[in-house]
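Table S2 (text version). Query chain:
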Amino acid sequence: ARTASLFLFAFIVNVVAFAIFSEYSIKTVYGLWLIVLPVGIVGGLINISRYKLMKRDFLKDLELIKYNEQLLLAHEDLNKKHIELDKKNSEITASLRYASILQQAILPSNKLMQTNLKEYFLFYRPKDVVSGDFYWVENSADRLFVAVADCTGHGVPGAMTSVVCSNALFR
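Corresponding structure-token output:
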């Protein structure tokens, strides 16, 4: 709006100066005034429109910058949580592997199975890293005791139950 006002003021000053200092008749100056004034007004309106568009674009850019900053903060937060989750996942996986080693330790060895059984096969594949399933073999004097058990639960709770049950069978 300020640019349009300055433009119109400069135009009026030029026309008045032209009318005062020129050798043309006053009719010529008024004719010129009638031609150039609408052009000046249209130019001023165009400048006002341009100003409004620039202001609107500037406000949109500000909104985009704010939104972009929010996205960057959310991205940083997500990265931190991802790193935490990876660390916890690694710790849990290591714990489960160790629990699997402990669970394998309570199962009878292949040597014990071969010594006491002529023919046998063994298929043991837990659903998870550890499970509630186990098998047990005990040779006592003239008898061979064999147990195949499925304790309630899967994963760590099932594995803990299988350890307790295996210990109970040894008693």
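Notes on Table S2: The beta strands are 133-140, 143-150. Helices lie at 2-21, 26-106, 110-116, 155-170.
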